[in-house]
Amino acid sequence: MTYSSLTILAASEGGEEGGSAAELLLPAWPELVAGIIAFAIVFFFVWKWVWPSLSKTLEVRQAAISGEMTAAEKAKTEAESLRKDYQEQLAASRAEGNRIVEEARQQAEQLRADILTKAESDAEQIRSKAREDAQGEKSRALAEARTQVGDISVDLASKIVGESLDENAHRALIDRYLADLEKL
């Protein structure tokens, strides 16, 4: 049963006793006085012992929450600072990496240029040595050819003239003949 049905039931029973509707709603005087005294005693105990304890507990809880909020703010600030430091270190690392790569690229370019210069220098030395060798070989071949031509000429002239020329005259004749050939 609900509260409204109880009041109706109580009203119908009260109607049999001859009470009015106001009597049904208000308790009897002795009950009202006992209720007020009981309420005052309970209020006094609550006010004297329960309320200070409850207030102290609430203050401790509030202080703990404030401390946790302060610690959370501090942790947030510290985390933000660490994040900024990390980002700065990351940026510095990237810059350092880029600098190292650029430095390595420049060194490689310099090394490449040095190698090309050395290779060209070596090639020029080889060409120069080859020219010198060729010139020396040419001179040697010409000297050998002069000697052979001279020997053949002397033999031929001896056979034609029938007499032998002396070696010095023969050499002078050969040199004069070869000099005339070179002028042509």
Any overview of this molecule?
This protein is an all-alpha fold. It has one domain. Helices cover 92% and strands 0% of the residues. The protein has 4 helices and no strands. Helix 3 packs across helix 4. The model has no long low-confidence stretch (mean pLDDT 82).
Alpha carbon gap, first and last residue = 151 Å
Beta-strand segment tally: 0
Name the helicity range: over 70%
Mean pLDDT: 82
SS class: mainly alpha
Model regions low in confidence, pLDDT < 50 over at least 5 residues = none
How is the main sheet built?
A: none
| Assembly state (oligomeric) | single chain
Give the SSE string. HHHH
- The number of helical runs is 4
Beta-strand proportion: under 5%
Radius of gyration, in Å, reads 65 Å
- The count of domains is 1
The 3D shape can be described as rod-shaped
Q: How is this structure best summarized?
A:
This protein has helices spanning 3-17, 21-25, 29-161, 167-183.
Topology at a glance:
Blueprint: H1 3-17, H2 21-25, H3 29-161, H4 167-183
Helix pairs in contact: 3-4
Features:
184 residues; mainly alpha
